[in-house]
Amino acid sequence: MAVKILLVLVFIAIAVGVGLYCRKTTSTVDGFVLGGRNVGPWMSAFAYGTSYFSAVVFVGYAGQFGFKYGLAATWAGIGNAILGSLLAWWVLGPRTREMTHRLGAQTMPEFFGKRYQSKALRIAAAAIIFVFLIPYTASVYNGLSRLFGMAFNLPYDVCVIGMAIVTCVYVVVGGYMATVMNDFIQGIVMLLGITAVIVAVIMSNGGFSEAVISLSQIEAPGTDMQGAFISFFGPDLFNLIGVVILTSLGTWGLPQMVQKFYAIKSGPAVKQGAIISTLFAFVVAGGSYFLGGFGRLYADQIEYAANGTPIYDSIIPTMLSTLPDVLIGLVIVLVLSASMSTLSSLVLTSSSTLTIDLIKGNVVKDMSEKRQLVCMRGLLVVFIVLSAAIALLQYHSSIVFIAQLMGYSWGALAGSFLGPFLWGLYSGRISKASVWCSFVIGVGLTAVNMGMGFAGTPLIASPINCGALCMLLSLAVVPLVSLVTPSVPFDVKPPSVKGATDREYERELEAETAAS
Q1: How many helices (H) and strands (E) in the chain?
Q2: C-beta separation of 141 from 388 below 8 A
């Protein structure tokens, strides 16, 4: 117990210390929100990865989908690495950095407002972010607190409040730079922790071969397939594809993820960051889902609801409960790292969006930079308190699982923003009407499905599949509607062998050479 407590205290001290160290970078709005757009490849890549993978993935998704699909759940981790990280960096990174720099956009709603020349679109995008980031933020607490309860026997409420306070301190004090510096440290912990845990769990089941043999002998409900949980595509390929699409393609339209490309400093940094981020995702996401694939070996030990349904959030904590104290302490710090990095990214995105895109110029007409910083810090505290309150309400009323909360919010956000953002980077023929259609589809389909689910029978049984469908519809609707509605005139440079930021970097070097 002493070792576990010491590891957690050291981690908290480092996080707060980094926040205090970075407070000098928060004197301007650009510095507080984007770190002055001068963040290097390693910090950007780790910030992207740690914001991507939180307790939602390690505890919620790995437990649920590993239990459902067995070792085939590892495909979700592979999809996260290839589609969610590598291709996202290659396709979005250079153009996002160049275009947001050219437009002077600090948030995704501001990008929509300036790119499509519409204040209404900017306000609508800000409202969508405000409403749908909160459920996702609340879900981040749940997995961490279950692990704390297992390791320290602490009440859920204490864990939620403690995590909220620590995150609040270092983000309010240090802003974006404190977030990315902590993300880098936390990312290293996650890499080491995932590797150690996988080895320990497999060895506790007699080694890899013995664990796979035991898993192969478990029958999968609903199919006659032998060894379904060790098969290449698992017992339910269709729903597995939905998981891969939601968790991989979703990052392309999530404001807290795309924001990492705003802040990276140059073209070469984008290229390096793509490789680093992909390797990070292979280890962390691939490892998490692979670990969850052995969840069926613990079917007689996990918690079940009154109707006999497994409580998926209890699977990973059950798997870890038999590990040595040192490893449990490492896991606690691992998930604390993942959760706090994601939480800090989400609340920073929410507060900056609400301040810059809704309050500034609308509620407060003439808002100085100092007042914007005060407002953002105040809203950070409000959002953290609000998300913690929702997490406590969800836990005590057992409304939904982690994966369902994440599925709803990812579906609405990425389903609204993915098409307009991606096509807006590459095409000068996109219309305002197409953007509005994407917003309506993302929010409308998610809200209808969620409402019908609460009423009894959802339109689409799985919120994961609903979210995946919203994203695919967004990608298809935007260009189709733009064919029959007036486009917003905008100069988009055609793709070339050189990335957009490479060309900008060369221009900067030429200017510096001419000046000297």
Answers
A1: 21, 0
A2: yes
